[in-house]
Each structure stands twice: as C-alpha cells, then as structure tokens.
Write a structure and sequence with these properties.
87 residues; three-stranded antiparallel beta sheet; 2 helices; 17% strand; alpha+beta
Length: 87
Amino acid sequence: MARPLTGDPTRAAILEDDARHRILVLSAPQDDTDEPIRAYLLDDLNLEDRLPQLIACSNRRQCATDRTPGVGGLSCLAFCVVETLQQ
C-alpha cells in the first residue's frame, strides 16, 4: 500500500482525471486562513501559439530544476500556464 507524501503544502497543481479533464488549482489556503482556493477548469487548450511564452516563463523561473516546496516542479509550470494565459 502506498504511503502518503508529507511536506510543505502545495500552492499550485494541475490535476487530471481518467477522462483527461484538467483542473488547475492555485493558492490553496494555508492553515487557519480565510484565503479562498482558486481553481480553473481547463478546456482543451491550444497552447501551440503560446508555447514560446510558456517556454520563456519556465526558463526564467527555472522550472526544470526548481524543487522548492510549493513553487517548484509542476507548481512552477502551473504558474507559467496561468501567466501565459493572462497575456
């Protein structure tokens, strides 16, 4: 049986179900705060036109090597997707 991972709470994530529906979750609340959870249901997105901006963001934030809890790895890419979509 798999053991749960423990560590600092994640602040951003991209979740996907078996039907490949994706939800981008940002700003999960810290303990004992009234901060809301922001979640975006992602439709099938054509990011091909925005790929240069997405790559530039991931390079600038060093997503490939950043393993900082809460903001590195996939969280880093999630923030870049949102940043790219807002441009």
